[in-house]
Amino acid sequence: MAAVYDRVALIGLGLIAGSMSLAMREAGLAGEIVGYARSPETRDTAREIGLVDHVTDSIAEAVSGADLVVLAVPVGAMGVVAEQIAPHLMPGATLTDVGSVKQAVIEAVLPHVPQDVHFIPGHPLAGTEHSGPRSGFAGLFRQRWWLLTPPEGTDPGAVERLAGLIRAMGANVEQMDAPHHDLVLAVTSHTPHLIAYTMVGVADHIKRITESEVVKYSAAGFRDFTRIAASDPTMWRDVFLQNKEAVLDILGRFTEELFVLQRAIRMGDGAHLHEYFTRTRAIRRGIIEAGQDTSAPDFGRGQGAPAGPRKDG
Amino acid sequence: MAAVYDRVALIGLGLIAGSMSLAMREAGLAGEIVGYARSPETRDTAREIGLVDHVTDSIAEAVSGADLVVLAVPVGAMGVVAEQIAPHLMPGATLTDVGSVKQAVIEAVLPHVPQDVHFIPGHPLAGTEHSGPRSGFAGLFRQRWWLLTPPEGTDPGAVERLAGLIRAMGANVEQMDAPHHDLVLAVTSHTPHLIAYTMVGVADHIKRITESEVVKYSAAGFRDFTRIAASDPTMWRDVFLQNKEAVLDILGRFTEELFVLQRAIRMGDGAHLHEYFTRTRAIRRGIIEAGQDTSAPDFGRGQGAPAGPRKDG
Question: N or C of chain A: less Cβ packing under 10 Å?
């Protein structure tokens, strides 16, 4: 495949940037891939494993001459980084980011973007519970969604070029406006993460009472929660602070709903619980049909489990 | 391996009983495996796929002459089933169950158990989000815990014989008292399940506003929640009703803790959030060290992700 960009600059060298580099390299999508990270240790590791073609010690040098610049730093750092690179961006370049929140990133970055640079905010719905320069892999974006939230008036040609790069890395591209993005993600990602963190925190208190049995006997449900709660603390701190409004809205709905179920348990209302649990099962089916997961029983964790039909299916 | 029991009767032919049958057959642990299920459709399916050696249409016939009887029905049905089988149990037989709650099962079953029958309540910490006679597989219990909560005065020889069968199916056996079991499971399994159900229910409401985008863009965290929330509704209804006290206790702690995090988000207290998320990450490490999960990044879902070190590791 012909290169889509001549020189791609990755700012931040964690899971997402590293995976982008490996995916672009695999498919020959960039003439040259340059990387910068604030931490000298991260830069050293990236050099050691050859994560990008060239690691620079200066952020200005990284973005100079790049026709695509990718901000892959925590959401709370986007504004500062944008301010630092702004004077060094090439006219006609495209600037994108991979942050999990879009309104706050646009507010922080847009004021610094020169008139002749195309700013196209983005968010790949992909990740693992690991982070850092060694955690990336070329297949991370395959069959995943990559949402773009270009502000009104963005050059359609620049958007299409970026979308072409993303599709060539294996992802599906969709456009939506930033407030809508933030609401959808509050529901599907941000609030579930906060809840998982909370439950793992509760277990931690109880653990002191029961001498590590909580860890030893962690069943499937809790194991999934701990995987979620093992995600990068800095990234998630910023997500919650930067998508505050939507997360607080969904948290409010969640607590209401939880109290209704809690009351049903207290009152012994089995019919209500059964009806509720039957309905949530159907949503799972929708997710499998939407191709976002398989029906292989993950709780079996590769013990030769068949993807058999469910009792209700 | 020599058979541990001459005739094993499985009452209920869902995921757990089916997996037990396949595991016992694979290792030659039972002379004969007989099965019964209340639903004629389940019995037909079990016959069709040869899940057990013999499916009976009468529960009395199933348990007659069995030296091991396994109650593998929803927790709320244990008492009724125990009452039905009690007159047909063989003197000296062992009666066990696989329910996720232990105190309520003991209260419901023990009054019906004849003096000359060994009642040894049990709980395999294993399962998938699938259910029904086709969902079982021989490896389900491998490397998993199987908790036994024998009442005081239970014959140690009978306990050791049952533990031997369980170990031969690949599981690790541990004994504890029933109230302690119910507390530990409320933390590691029951409450996380309720929370996942609730979050999926909230998403279901929002879905109506955003036209299925919630399903389409479900990120890793939410996908794990939907997998949990896809579990068998009847089983879980009974778990919450039968382990009411412990679940309500843990739910109370959970809501307190969630409100503290919610307040930190509202107040913009990033330090508190970061400290909290860093602590929960350590718990995940404990679970991996306890051998209950691997460090392979599951969010990558078999896309060739390396089990690389984490940024904090």
Answer: N
